[in-house]
Amino acid sequence: QVQLVESGGGVVQPGGSLSLSCAASGFTFNNVGIHWLRQAPGKGLEWVAFLNWDGSNKYHADSLKGRFAVSRDNSRDALSLQMSSLTIEDTALYYCATQATRGGWTAFDRWGQGTLVTVSS
Amino acid sequence: QSVLTQPASLSGYYGQTITISCTGSRGNIGASNYVSWYQQHPGKAPKFIIYDVDKRPSGVSDRFSGSKSDETASLTISGLQVEDEADYYCCAYAGSGTFVIFGGGTKLTVL
Lengths: 121, 111
Prior knowledge:
The complex is a heterodimer. By secondary structure, chain A is mostly beta strands.
């Protein structure tokens, strides 16, 4: 059974840091690119970052201004998102999703259930 | 404010056909066929229903179809079912730097 499970969310103060994880199972993790996306409460979807199958190519949304960094450990079938200098606007449900074999950058075929990050003083 | 513009809400009667539009620009929808659509029920993760403008992933009902004309993509749902009531998001590739953008979402109500 294909599964992505995010963890690491919680409440953090403005200016703080947090690390999210995405654990994969049920498929060959080291063959696929993985994206992070987020959704603020009651709002739409926003793309955050992408990491290709072996971690050699990383891309992040310009709007994040270098505050977020994505990495992966294929030996553990796991992906991480390191977030720093967090602001209230970063409050959201964070999803990891696999990139489909067809459809390019916009094709996210498997999603986790998300982990909630709340930035609040 | 999203770069891709969708109607905030739409409604249709059971069994009818509806179309959700997604308007972008020459820099995104108008520039490539990397356009996808997602369905999201309340409290659930999004579901991948259309890619490359008009292709359906395996297992997605053929009642869902996609199209594109210039800078506007569209999702058509035929034979509306109660379970189609959800939020729908379009997604497009916007080139290096921005990479991926979404529409603001359309809340579909089945009457």
